Amino acid sequence: MRLLTTSFAAAIVAVAAFAMAAEGPDPLAVVRAAYVDGVHRNADADAMRAGFHDSFRMYVNGDEGVTVVTLDEWAERVAKAGADPQRVTPDIAAELEIVAQSGDAAVVRVELRRDGKHVFTDFLSLYRSADGWKIVAKIYQRHP
Fold it and tell me: What are the sequence ranges of the domains in the chain?
């Protein structure tokens, strides 16, 4: 009986591991690859787009109130920065934390430092679909 129970438990673990692998990267891996590396470290619009949903919006709280930046607008800026032959790759450090996750929705907080200076606290919202986790929205605080 013990052998049967052990085999059954091993089968459950194997099925769970397979299901987790099929889901793809977790929200933090997507944020690291598309946002931290794609946007900030490498200025790589293709890497950025791989982790952002087509309907992504960034909400900017500025002097004129809250304005909206689309994925296409932001990716164009990132591509332009990446194509600059004078661009120096910054030293980027990021602390990532899942603030909340429920099923297919997650919010990730990012504390971003560029060349040792704390520059942003970001709140990124993600959804998981058949394509995996994708960043759908961003709000942030810029630090002086």
Answer: 25-142
